[in-house]
């Protein structure tokens, strides 16, 4: 059994470690918001779900696969156009989910989309820093410190929220508090304009605080 003094020392060490982790993360996300605003960009991941469509076609469900692809892309166009018009914090680009492997390798040229979801080789990308904007779940990752080059540990994660736009690094590791790293949006095609304006405002507020 620990003595009173040893227990106090242990508690102090644990608290100090927690504070250090929190301070380290705060510094990391402050740096992230500054880089994003001052020369960075956001890349929104357009969910084309080619694997699912391909599997359906292999099963002979060609007509159904094409119909679902068309419906999905029509919704994605609405979302993309809403983001392009209403996300004003920094430049925003668009890329298919199926091209993320190329992005990780640095093969960006020729893979960006216009707001009609057509690839445009003429779209140039000269930003040294970027974050991905994904749509899906927000996970609980206690004790995590944001890292530009780290991957998330997918084991044992708990989903806190669904139907959210979430900021992540290029390895799909989500940011953490105090960065305003997500916004809930249950019906993106209908709510996209309002949600993107709100998200831009939150980012601006955090940037102004980080710059103080």
Give the % helix.
Answer: 40-55%
Mean pLDDT: 86
Uncertain runs are none
Strand content: 15-25%
Q: State the end-to-end distance.
A: 47 Å
Q: How many domains comprise the coordinates?
A: 1
Instruction: Report the structural category.
Output: alpha/beta
Strand order of the largest sheet: 2-1-3-4-5
**Biggest beta-sheet profile:** 5 strands, mixed
| Tally of DSSP β-strands | 5
Radius of gyration: 20 Å
Shape: globular
Output the number of helix runs.
5
H/E element sequence: HEHHEHEEEH
In oligomeric terms, what are we looking at? single chain
Q: Keywords for this structure?
A:
5 helices; 212 residues; alpha/beta; 5-stranded mixed β-sheet; 5 strands
